[in-house]
Amino acid sequence: MKTPPQKIGLALSGGSTYGIAHIGVIAALEEANIKIDCISGTSAGSLVGAYLAFGLSSKEMFELTKGLDWKKLSKFTFSRMGLKSNERMATFLTDTLGDVRIENAKIPLAIVATNIETHKMVTLTKGPLNVAVRASTSIPGLFTPVEFDGQVLVDGGLTENVPMTPLEDMGATIKIAVNLLNSTTHSRPKNVVDVLNKSIDILSLHRDQHIANRANVLIEPDLSTFDSMSFKSSQELFDAGYTAGKAAIPHIKALLAPKQRSPFSNALSKLFSLFSN
Fold first, then answer.
1. What value, to the nearest 5°, has the Cα angle with vertex 221 and ends 96 and 162?
2. d(C-alpha 277, C-alpha 258), whole Å
3. E-assigned strands of the chain?
């Protein structure tokens, strides 16, 4: 009997501009020829996961980060529901990938958001990609909520910052989780944006502390010296992700290696084969 092929799933956490580290992890996986079979993403991880699912390489993704700043991804709004709108993020995504739908991705993709009315996690696997990513990245209070299929959605980090549940639902047998919030800085907040962002981080840290029990491989880049709201350290964030990803490659390859069968198992297999003939 043939052993069924392994199905590798990649879960990309939220983390604002720390998301650039995801690209470094992906570069390490590409270099090692690790093929990803399904992807889940929350917040910043949904944006990077979307690009990966629709066929962009780590090099192409990193090129997109050059010259990026919050003015290109958001704008102030007069809404009572948030300080800013992240519609520009949806436009940025559409400009690079086109007006695509989640279900048409080259690699199966699931995007995590939170229903602000029911307080429940929402996994988006169909519909306009730009709207889903915008919903997943809508930090409450900072960005206005996004209406999607009759639901009012905000940042997925409130309910599952490291999105393991979608990987389990997609049947991943080897689950690789990338958590960007395990080693973040403990700096004093400077403004309301920092307060809101750090509040999400605190929720994520406490909720995801047992994530290692659900992942076969847990990758946690050291991002303790970086500012999660600044794009100025994009190369360093990439390098931190690459280093952490590179360190995980031997473990991933060990999980992918065919398991040696014992002589007893081989004898049973031969016996079964004789009787079945």
1. 70
2. 26
3. 8-12, 38-42, 75-76, 82-85, 109-115, 121-124, 141-143, 146-148, 151-155, 174-178, 217-219
DSSP 19: G
Per the annotation, the verdict on 37 as an active-site residue is: no
Could you tell me how many residues make up the chain?
A: 277
Name the catalytic one among 37, 155, 201, 208.
155
Determine the pLDDT at residue 271: 46
| Residue in the structure block whose two tokens are 């307080």 | 119
What pLDDT, in 10s, does the model give residues 143-164? 889 999 899 999 999 999 999 9
Active-site residue (options: 13, 16, 40, 43)? 43
- What is the rounded end-to-end Cα distance, in angstroms, of the chain? 14
Q: How far apart are CA 96 and CA 91, in angstroms?
A: 9
- 5-38: b (≥16 Cβ within 10 Å) or e: eebbbbbbbbbbbbbbbbbbbbbbbbeeebebbb
Average model confidence (pLDDT) across the chain? 85
**Known catalytic membership, residue 155:** yes
Angstrom distance (rounded) from CA 186 to CA 224: 8
Question: Which DSSP category does 103 fall into?
Answer: G
Pairwise CA distance, residues 179 & 161, whole Å: 8
